Amino acid sequence: MFILDQHSSIACQYLAEIRDVETQKDPLRFRQNLRRLGQLLAYEISKTLHFESREIETPLTKSSAKFLKDDVVVISILRAALPFSQGFQDLFDRAEFGFIGAARLPHAANEPVEIGLNYLATPNLNEKTVIVVDPMLATGKSIVKSIESLFENGKPKSLHIATTIAAPEGVSYVKDNLNTAYNLWSCALDEKLNEKYYIVPGLGDAGDLAFGQKL
Ligand SMILES: O=P(O)(O)OC[C@H]1O[C@H](OP(=O)(O)OP(=O)(O)O)[C@H](O)[C@@H]1O
Ligand SMILES: O=c1cc[nH]c(=O)[nH]1
Ligand SMILES: [Mg+2]
């Protein structure tokens, strides 16, 4: 598992701002910080991808230059993923994109979380480099159920899971329940889940903070 916030960098400040209740009052900054964290994580993931050399012509001479060889598909888990995945769209500007609607169904504290899937739009995933993006990895159930549903649409060459904040419980759940090889990337690894399965210290509800409370 790769964690972005292990060394001091500007990522620390973006993370601090999305967590802080005062800064959270500015939803534009909240979305912008998620987008910037998405850009930084996309850059880290790009270092593991494959590149090929091609000849280009500068105004001065012919030269050899490297281009991304892998066919990247970025999958966003609606709705909270949208600002974070914008950062992936910024960097992987020639990628294909897919979307899954997944939401935790209403549940009482300490009762198990169930996930409802209600929308799926994806390109063919066969032999693609698939990056599944969701800012919060809490119980891990949304990501596992989404990926199981996605993989009915093809067998990717490789799978990356990218989150902003992960809980140890979610990391373990993915490890125990996802029946395929993957790389997990997160901006931060937090302490635990609370009785409502929110990440602590976390940031609260990412979807509500970005877009307003759901009915
Ligand atoms: O790891 P889990 O326990 O499954 O929780 C994480 C999920 O919860 C949030 O979505 P939410 O259900 O709040 O929907 P939203 O994006 O519409 O806010 C978040 O964006 C993840 O998809
Ligand atoms: O802490 C959490 C857990 C799930 N979804 C969120 O938005 N935040
Ligand atoms: Mg939400």
Describe the structure.
This protein is an alpha/beta fold and 215 residues long. It has one domain: 3-Layer(aba) Sandwich (Rossmann fold), CATH 3.40.50. It is built from 6 helices and 12 strands. Strands 1, 4, 5, 6, 7, 8, 9 and 10 form an 8-stranded mixed β-sheet that branches. It has a two-stranded antiparallel sheet with strand order 2-3. α1 packs antiparallel against α2 (27-46) and α2 (27-46) crosses α3 (81-91). The radius of gyration is 18 Å and the shape is globular. The protein starts with a strand and ends with a helix. Residues 80, 136, 138, 198-199, 202, 205-207 line the site of uracil. It holds the Pfam family UPRTase. Belongs to the UPRTase family. Catalyzes the conversion of uracil and 5-phospho-alpha-D-ribose 1-diphosphate (PRPP) to UMP and diphosphate.
